[in-house]
Give the backbone structure.
Amino acid sequence: MTNESWGRACEDLLKSIGSNNFTTWIKPLKFKELNNGVAHFDVPTSFVGDWVSRNFGDAILHHLAVNGETVDRLQFNVGSQSAKSPVPATKPAQAEPAMPANAAPARAEGDLPGAPIDARFTFDSFVVGKPNELAHAAARRVAEGGPVTFNPLFLYGGVGLGKTHLMHAIAWELQNRSPHLRVVYLSAEQFMYRFVQALRERDTMGFKELFRSVDVLMVDDVQFIAGKDSTQDEFFHTFNALVDQNKQIIISADRAPGEIKDLEERIKSRLQCGLVVDLHPTDYELRLGILQQKVEHYRQQYPGLVIAPGVLEFLAHRISTNVRVLEGALTRLFAFASLVGKEITLDLAQDCLADILRASDRKVTVEEIQRKVSEHYNMRLSDMIGPRRHRMIARPRQIAMYLAKQLTSRSLPEIGRRFGGRDHTTVMHAVKRVDELRAVDNQIAEDLEMLRRTLEA
């Protein structure tokens, strides 16, 4: 066997396994000699040799045979030391050892990086409502394991809407169902830190081996890597390598892939090729359900504490933008009532949570909505309230009416008057139409979410 025949085999391997797998796993191999039917290769680490033997051994033997070489076995050596005793390239991959029952899935193997998984964030503790039911169903499907149906799963939404909760829940469920899986959950910031550390220590190959050997990769707040070119490049290649191996990837961000400024177009395209799911802002019913679940939990911690009727409804109505703030308000309320030994009444809630309620009282005006929607759709404000009915104007006008109904306390007749004296039935039709469109038109759903966040910021 010669370097020339190995080169021809490499050309064939490139076509059969893809450029990402070839660059990551085959290119580092250095052919040394063929001796008694055993092809010897130098590899940078024993890990690479083991991985190639398990995952690409058959393919290498096949392409060597096609190019006229008779090879029975492959052996990989780290420098002058053997990485492993000669084994058939057809040796099946060994099952990963099971983790201890109490191990967090982010630490599926001792050498894997990752953030700790919060035991509070399970599917059982996740309250499902209309704004998050699709995200919950998709997360459940991924957590079942088995064949990958959509890759990646991309969850996005504002602060405190449940993205991180669902990612932790997926990790716990995967651990319970398949303890042998190598699952890594970490933030994009931690991914970047590990990469920079590898660059500083001149161990980028070790970094690649680590992240491309996992079964499930979960990266939170991916918008953090936007504008960081080297980290984006490595993330892109890691992403491709795992997809090529049919490994599951789960990503979260605070906005849709196409809206993340300074994120490379090739990464946006990759992220959009899977299932992209928006966690919409919570509605009143969902917020009330979250509070009711929390109360059941707190009753164990504060036995005998009484909460008066109407308090939860009041909180669900007044604190509407952030579930974390809502839960924090309830925690403070229970702790305060316990300390002073009083029943949780509406008056107590208003006194105890005065600062939170003031912060949640920012008033969005109809005029502000009209201005923001006009800017977003690049139209004149005069057209927003004028008589023109052209589709390019009528649709943004309907969206502005819908947001005015959702974000202000104005009545339908009042909203109609601010849109050029239109009848309240026109506003009703606009609200109904936009509600129908947001369920079937992803662009309108994304526009609504972005405008809502801008107005409530």
Q: What stands out?
A: Residues 80-111 have pLDDT under 50 and may be disordered. The beta strands are 30-35, 38-43, 73-78, 81-82, 153-156, 183-187, 216-220, 248-253, 275-278. The longest strand covers residues 30-35.
